[in-house]
Amino acid sequence: MKKKLSLTLLMLSLLLIVAACGNDNANKENKETDQNETQSESEENSGISLTDLQGNKVELEAAPERIVSLTAGDLNTLYDLGETAVGRPVIRGNMREEIEEIPEVGTSNDVNVEKIASLRPDVVIAHPQLNKDVIPALEELGIGVVQMGANSIDEVKESIEILGKLVQKEENAAELIKNIEEASDQANQDEADKLRTLIIFGSAGNWMVALPDSLSGNMLDAVGGYNIAEDYEKLERFPQYAQLDMEKIVEADPEVIFFITAGPYEETVAAFTKEMEQNPAWGNIQAVQEDHFIGLPNDLFGANPGSRIIDSLDYLHEELESIAKE
Q1: pLDDT for res 308
Q2: Pairing of strands 256-261, 226-227
Q3: What is the DSSP track for 100-162?
Q4: What would you measure as the largest C-alpha separation in the chain, in angstroms?
Q5: How far apart are CA 44 and CA 188, in angstroms?
Q6: What integer is the mean pLDDT of 127-155?
Q7: 188: which residues sit within 8 A by CB, 6+ positions away?
Q8: What's the pLDDT score for residue 120?
Q9: Alpha helices in the chain (DSSP H)
């Protein structure tokens, strides 16, 4: 009887040990499953961390769903990346059809903060100079701000990379950058075909000359033009531009003058032409004598065209090539 009881107790003990081991394994598996699920949820809900073109660290809780762009070029880039926007600036010149119905928030350098806030954006893409007065107000409202302001082809490519990361479409961004690099290579003229060129930018009574380190100056260099303003003194407020110096222009005698207007094209050209007529020195310049005074489209050259810089390079190259063949 005693032996049977001992045997029974032994069997019960073994069953308890096996059951305990089974529970431990089950708990371990459940714990691992919970950890994996938590990690997956964490990855799905992970925020966005990037550095914008001006070196500012930008942290967002998640990829933005509602974006306002204060520059036409960055807006173009968003749409070429396959993204959309809920707000945009007033755009002069050609505009892609899909952005026509997007609510306007003002011009690039005069935006309405209340209008922007009413659109409930997760992030605003801004220009560091044109929008410097409203950026603090947007940040006070708790709106994330990504500052761009590309002044070279390389910076345009960098801005595309940043926006690709912002909207989590890095592969699309890489493809756009590749296309720009190919277009830049194709547009490059022979050194022998370099033409003495002047780029004038501005509006009535406020004319500036684009320096080589401006975006339009950089594009000119990329397609084989020679910027006569390479040694001009920079303006303090707009360091990529210089004051229009008639004496230096006459001395350099440009073969081509490109004109970019910040305002209504016809009105601005008429105002500049009137000023030229009042100053006989213009008549001594080869570009004027040979009618090589060429207006450039505002949507491609008035500011950073974003991913449309491919069109800008093609346009500039064709104009120079046409003159070089005369």
Answers
A1: 92
A2: unpaired
A3: TTSPB-EETTEE-HHHHHHT--SEEEE-TTTTTTTHHHHHHTT-EEEE----SHHHHHHHHHH
A4: 131
A5: 44
A6: 94
A7: 222, 223, 224
A8: 97
A9: 2-44, 72-80, 113-118, 135-140, 153-166, 170-187, 215-222, 246-252, 265-278, 286-289, 298-301, 309-324
Backbone phi, psi, residue 11, to 5°: -65, -40
pLDDT of residue 186: 75
Cβ-count burial 12-44 (b if 16+ within 10 Å, e if not): eeeeeeeeeeeeeeeeeeeeeeeeeeeeeeeee
Angstrom distances, CA of residue 264 to CA of 11, 93, 284, 297, 305: 96, 9, 28, 11, 18
Please report the pLDDT score of residue 203 as a whole number: 75
What's the pLDDT at 7? 45
pLDDT tens, 45-82? 468 999 999 999 999 999 999 999 999 999 999 999 99
**Block residue for tokens 């990690």:** 39
In the chain, what percentage of residues exceed pLDDT 90? 57
- Model confidence over 196-252: pLDDT tens digits? 999 999 877 788 999 999 999 999 998 888 999 999 999 988 899 999 999 999 999
Domains and their CATH numbers in the chain: 48-184 (3.40.50.1980), 189-324 (3.40.50.1980)
pLDDT of 47 reads 85
The Cα–Cα gap between 204 and 207 comes to: 7
Cβ-based burial of 248 (10 A; exposed 0-12, middle 13-18, buried ≥19): middle
Average pLDDT over the chain, rounded to an integer: 84
Region of residue 45 (left: phi > 0; alpha: psi -120 to 50; beta: else): alpha
Across the range 138-156, mean pLDDT stands at 94
Instruction: List all residues 6 or more positions away from 255 whose beta carbon is below 8 Å from its beta carbon.
Output: 195, 196, 197, 286, 287, 290, 292, 323
Contacts of 158 (CB under 8 A, 6+ apart): 53, 150
What secondary structure does DSSP assign to 308-320, as a single string?
Answer: GHHHHHHHHHHHH
Question: What pairs with residue 51 in β-bridges?
Answer: 57
